Fold:
Amino acid sequence: RKAIREIGYEQAGFHWKTAKIDVLLHGQSPDIGQGVDNAADRQGEEGAGDQGIMFGYACRETPDLMPAPIYYSHKILELLAAARHDGDGEAGKLGPDAKSQVTVRYVDGKAAEATQIVLSTQHLDATWDSKKVRKVVEPYIREALGDLKIAEDCNWYINPTGKFVIGGPDGDAGLTGRKIIVDTYGGAAPHGGGAFSGKDTTKVDRSAAYAARYLAKNVVAAKLADRCT
Structure:
């Protein structure tokens, strides 16, 4: 309930006070566990709880060594979330459910300008339309993009359906583990297909992806390459 409250869900269909929470967990399969535990006994380190293909990636496009499109998409949502939590003007009337996408044109291998900006964000005032939402969020979008130029013919898609009042699990339950690209590099690098969500560190889908990212970041940070997979 604390997590739901901190995120900000207080709507009729999904409220931190009234949400029904069922805990349906049991121990890991002993058949899998023996592979993890036996390796720990033999090698002093835990074994892998699964097999798979994991990738790490880094590039010199942004301060975080992330590709520009995913970096700026995340930055937009970070600023909007901060404004919402701080009650910053009308941004305080935005809801917690949101996602963004930025399309970037490259020139000579470098991010030159944003050609398309997509933002869908929940809002608590049912009278708001897409134009009103854009008026509220555009200053934060421009701040997030910083020095990245916005093309004169840039396509803006802000709440393109026109209304987004019902959000979170009340509006679209979805499935755990679907957002594998937004959790990594926005499509700029290969992905083995394994999701991060709901997995402990014995699952290499998460831990090996982190390790691979660490290696790639060090290669780029050491100026051994402009990008590394």
